[in-house]
């Protein structure tokens, strides 16, 4: 079996193999070469598995994104995608070979973090990816959707404007880009995605209404992308907001929509206060809580020094990487929100797998949780308490982007 990099000449074979691996029927691109989820594939970052008879039987790819880390640091990452093997060739080691080759290629590019969206939760842990952000749906019956006025603080100034998605793509791109730079766990949406209309709404060209929020000076600072189905359910694809007050203003608009039976907020952020703003707390039902973005660290010291931190302290982390056959012991020293990470032979405070360190990395999973789950072994209880303080973020990580 040969694993090789793809070129532009492989485009059709690559796309056809991806579709066949997932039993999907290939759609036609529009006249501008876009309008389908695979329009933004980067063929200089793809891999093909070639059988001895010359047929492609597996694919793996990556997108070039930026990831916002705790502390609002932004770093380049690979968004792993299009990983699949034809049903006729599964359980022959092809997936493992592609993932091993891909990780080597990502390191050769100088990247220290890789991310993906796992279609099946059990697949990617063995390759070192750990769930790092989470998402859920909030469902609110329209007749129970009244919001109370805030008892403390002020509501957002400004206004909400109704637009069609096709008429405001440039504004959506600008608002999303400002939002993602301040939101831990958020991925960039490169301009070519918007230009090619790849992915899901509001990037994809499916008809959608846009509720655009402008601040008191008329500057766009949030939007909600939505459509109404035949079942009278208002489905909100995503809500992007500069702060909680803007989110509330958009929610008030959506929950006040006429001829709607129910409003469903997809990708509702963890720990968001909107349920507390409902006059009837129990009207908001959280469902489909699931992992979203998984993180894989390729260079532990670089990754740990790139993000911002809470509090001060020292931890010795003993990190194993079974898939790559690597092991390292690292002294993490945090002062004033910045970290140093160097090799050490000191006694470890925490023993953990690279997958678990990926889950901790963005602050969406507490070290205590993984200690209690039996994933992380602690030398002493105080070390776990310190790890909780250091890894904690003031804003839970959240990722809206689908790839």
Q: Would you count the extended β strands for me? A: 19
Q: So how many helices?
A: 10
The coarse overall form would be globular
Q: Which value, in Å, is the CA radius of gyration?
A: 22 Å
Task: Look at the helices and sheets and give the structural class.
Answer: alpha+beta
Subunit structure: Homohexamer; trimer of dimers.
Organism: Kitasatospora viridis
Family: Belongs to the acetyltransferase Eis family.
GO molecular function: aminoglycoside N-acetyltransferase activity
List keywords for this structure.
Nonspecific Lipid-transfer Protein, Chain A; 32% strand; 10 helices; 7-stranded mixed β-sheet; Aminopeptidase; GNAT_dom; 23% helix; 19 strands; acyltransferase; 403 residues; 3 domains; single chain; aminoglycoside N-acetyltransferase activity; alpha+beta; transferase; Eis_dom
Which helices and strands occur, and which strands form pairs?
Blueprint: E1 2-5, H1 11-21, E2 47-50, E3 56-68, E4 74-85, H2 94-108, E5 113-117, E6 130-131, E7 134-141, E8 159-164, H3 169-182, H4 191-196, E9 209-214, E10 220-228, E11 233-241, H5 244-255, E12 262-268, H6 274-277, E13 285-291, E14 293-297, H7 300-306, E15 313-321, E16 326-335, E17 338-343, E18 350-353, H8 354-361, H9 367-372, E19 377-378, H10 381-391
Parallel strand pairs: 4-5, 11-12, 15-18
Antiparallel strand pairs: 1-2, 2-3, 3-4, 5-14, 6-14, 7-12, 7-13, 8-9, 9-10, 10-11, 15-16, 16-17, 18-19
